[in-house]
Specification:
Elements (H helix, E strand, L loop, with lengths): L13 E3 L3 E2 L9 E5 L6 E4 L3 E9 L8 E8 L2 E3 L5 H4 L5 E3 L9 E9 L8 E9 L5 E12 L2
Parallel strand pairs: 4-11
Antiparallel strand pairs: 1-3, 2-11, 3-5, 5-9, 6-7, 6-10, 8-9, 10-11
Keywords: Secreted, Signal
Family: Belongs to the NPC2 family.
InterPro entries: Ig_E-set, ML_dom, ML_Npc2-like
Length: 149
């Protein structure tokens, strides 16, 4: 389950996908590109790599940026935390840097192995990047269907 939320992405070509806003009302990114996915739900193959990029313009300055990813099966939130080395989103900026200035363009990149103990289900993934105070800078939801290798 730990890497299930990263299963949203598969490597091949990256395309922008339409994403949904989070219930917290945070802004969505300008663009989300998931390798091998052009529309929801993205097909995630166990054992593949999750590759995604998102672009946004920072609405405010912040010293650092925290990443969180949550998995939902219907309305049930599956307990999950990103590994400690992936929580500091600043380490994964391809464009922009910390500290972030208001109006700065940021490209956030995430690449990680996809693993899950089950296949044949569709889950919702929620990715959020938050400022130093924990206030969301961006947040979005997308769906992924988990398939076997």
């Amino acid at each position: 389950m730990k890497f299930l939320l990263f299963g949203v992405l598969l490597p091949t070509l990256a395309y922008g996908i339409a994403v949904r806003p989070c219930p917290n009302g945070a802004p969505i990114p300008q663009e989300v590109r998931v390798a091998g996915c052009t529309a929801e739900p993205c097909i995630v193959q166990i054992g593949g790599m999750v590759d995604m990029d998102l672009d946004f313009v920072a609405a405010r300055a912040t010293a650092d940026v925290h990443a969180s990813l949550e998995i939902f099966l219907g309305d049930f939130r599956v307990p999950y935390e990103l590994p400690p080395n992936q929580r500091n989103a600043c380490l994964f900026f391809e464009a922009g840097s910390c500290p972030v200035t208001q109006g700065e363009f940021i490209n956030y990149h995430l690449s990680t192995p996809a693993a899950a103990p089950f296949v044949g289900i569709t889950v919702d993934l929620q990715l959020q990047l938050s400022d130093t105070a924990g206030t969301p800078l961006i947040c979005y939801r997308s769906s992924a269907t988990i398939v076997g290798a």
